[in-house]
């Protein structure tokens, strides 16, 4: 395999001419022959003015470059698509696969011997890992790191758990607009990713667990000196990987590593979005992600990391408590510690090297968990033949076994139009159903699964209801919310057949979600159903034609690596 500038030469039919041209252009940029002979490290920067979570990415890229240069490599910073949750319309999930394709394409097209992947906001690390696994060149992830926690009137605030809490208080008339505005200024006090155990912290933690980062890289705050030192160390390590040509992502992402990720996901009470991302990441390596196994792991794995929304602390506390290495040590008897990392070591090395100190309020001992039962459960039943997920650690215990009448919203637009209508015929016992909000139906499976409590019930103090959808939910949200129902309504799943007033039974103890309607009636309704109109053109058409259902990761069928081992 050709290395350095000789790799991936542009095809003019004369490789030496291609190299001559390439070197000439680089000389125009000020590089000399000594520099051009070095191993090349690509530095994928996801800096974008549309991505405030990645506000420090330019500084991180500079620190990575310093590490690469110090270790004898040649760094090249390059951009890809960058996705931020509150900017990417209609939902960043629609564009995750496009970003993954961008990453894979650039890793395959540009001359680099290794790559540093700077990411953090929810979809970015999954997209980077998906692309890197398909390109399969040595790759090391550098999360941008979490924000520091906010402070307001004596309370610590975390995006976006407290964004949702404060908004719900405001909607319910319990918080004035003035007070909301004052708290708003403190919700996101620094650059970085959301500092609760939302999707960003979850995916950074899982990337570290899977061995794709240096130890401790998931949790050091975005604005800390430690984060900058981590960037420099990441650059140095990338040069070693460039010289060795390994480890390649496919060497790290084994079935054992994925099993470790499932254990950690349950122990951190991570975002349900991780189910979709892990399935997609596994698919790029030709591996399956077993939701039934994840459910079984959950039954034996208490929640140990005490972060919002399930707990009380923030990502910076997780870091100073010992971070992922301390958590891995807590779980060492359950993990496969032989799993390897980008640093060329195993989890055994990380666990044995981690300092003895652990803040036991933040990373709880096994006999004093935050939540004794599982964080995430996987359901099946006649309403979700290919599965659905519920974050039990964020659900109301009184609602996880519940039977009630359905109130159906056919689309996000209908939900927005009707949910606050004072005439809405709804009671706290209703199961709110949102459909056509899945991968194909929305399209892009937005984080709309935590349907707002109807205003008239919120005003009466109702804080939670059973909500069921083929959508996703933010990792920072809470409530008795059944998500990722598969197959989705737009793909002809049973969710498409639910009518107002149908009885629905949620029985988490038996892992069931059932529509209590006669099969003959459902068959009659199925005959009347027709699929929604597809987007006419462009990426959205490609998306709906090729996206898989949530249980398979919502990746494109033509990007999944078919099982080879
Ligand atoms: Fe970027 Fe939360 S919106 S991490």
Please supply descriptive tags for the structure shown above.
20 helices, 8-stranded mixed sheet, globular, binds FE2/S2 (inorganic) cluster, alpha/beta, 14 strands, 4-stranded parallel sheet, 565 residues
N/C terminus separation: 24 Å
* Silhouette: globular
Radius of gyration using CA atoms only: 24 Å
Task: Profile the largest sheet.
Answer: 8 strands, mixed
Count of DSSP helices? Answer: 20
Q: In percent terms, what proportion of residues is strand?
A: 5-15%
Strand order of the largest sheet: 7-8-12-11-10-9-13-14
Poorly predicted regions:
none
**Secondary structural class:** alpha/beta
What is the residue-averaged pLDDT? 96
Bound molecules: FE2/S2 (inorganic) cluster
Number of strand segments: 14
State the helical fraction: 25-40%
Notes on the structure:
The chain contains 20 helices and 14 strands. The strands form 3 sheets. Strands 7-8-12-11-10-9-13-14 form an 8-stranded mixed β-sheet. It has 565 residues and is α/β, with parallel strands linked by helices. The chain is globular, with a radius of gyration of 24 Å. 36% of the residues lie in helices and 12% in strands. Helix 3 (57-70) packs across helix 9 and helix 4 packs parallel to helix 5 (124-135). The two termini are 24 Å apart. FE2/S2 (inorganic) cluster binds at residues 53, 84-86, 121-122, 193-194, 198, 200.
